[in-house]
Amino acid sequence: MAKTPQGALMPIGPEANELLPKLKIGQQVWVDVVRARNTAFHRKWFSLVGLAFDNWEPPVIESGRFAGFQPEKDFDTFRKDITKLAGFVDVNVSITGHAIVTARSISFDKMEQDEFEKLYSATINVLLRLVFPRKTEAQLRAWVEAVMRYDG
Asked: How far apart are CA 113 and CA 111, in angstroms?
């Protein structure tokens, strides 16, 4: 749906166009309103985090520390850690009474555009501190833009 200048909601897309004729004039319905997020900005955040992941070297971990398992560099863990370090967390309690801190979901239905923009800025700050200490914010933003142009 999209809002018209008169304040009404207008159907957009095949799903809405199929549903609308099934409603009677004046029939009340419940509508879940989720503002659409900017998909290009979503890809930009992933480009930023991907760039950081590619340039990040994990600290050396003592051999045998994890029952013989060697920890591996993992993008999903990295992006969740960056999200948490940026301050976008959910805190729950475990069955044993301990706090469990997880990265807030960045899915389109869980995070609106304005909050996602705050996450992007906070992510830059985290990455400048932990992955790119010799870069400026302007340099990092320009680098991401260059990657986006190349990937696009």
From this structure: 7
User: Which 8-state DSSP code applies to residue 13?
Assistant: S
- pTM as predicted: 0.73
What are the Cα distances from residue 115, in Å, to 12, 38, 50, 152?
25, 12, 20, 25
pLDDT tens per residue, the chain (152 residues)?
Answer: 788 899 888 888 888 888 888 889 888 888 777 667 788 899 999 999 999 999 999 887 776 667 777 788 999 999 999 999 999 999 999 999 999 999 999 998 889 899 999 999 999 999 999 999 999 999 999 999 898 887 65
Residue from 109, 113, 111, 54 nearest 88 by CA? 111
